[in-house]
Amino acid sequence: MAAGHHVEAAVVEQHIRVEVNGQVVAETQQPVLLKETGLPDRWYIPPADVRLDLFDPSDLRTTCPFKGEATYWTLRDATNPTRNIAWTYPDPLPTVSAIKDHLAFYDRHATVTALP
User: Which residue ranges form the domains of the chain, and what is each CATH number?
Assistant: First the structure.
């Protein structure tokens, strides 16, 4: 880990809902909260709690030195698909193994809400 850079992931009990254009695409009571130096906190949603029938895998791959290789998902829409709206780490680094296969969503495309 780079000096001064910290990343941690933990399963928490929190009701999280993810909406895109008013449609609920994910909802869970046991997300993983990822905290990383210099980045906003991110909620990672278990795949069983995501409407994967609405998404297609993307060809995009990126690598994070602190989390590993990410793969991306595109929201399927016949007129206006939202490319690479979500990402996941199929084989994350051991320090963040809790995010394995969970999906996180970009704030600019999705509304991620923590509910009471």
Answer: 7-115 (2.170.150.40)
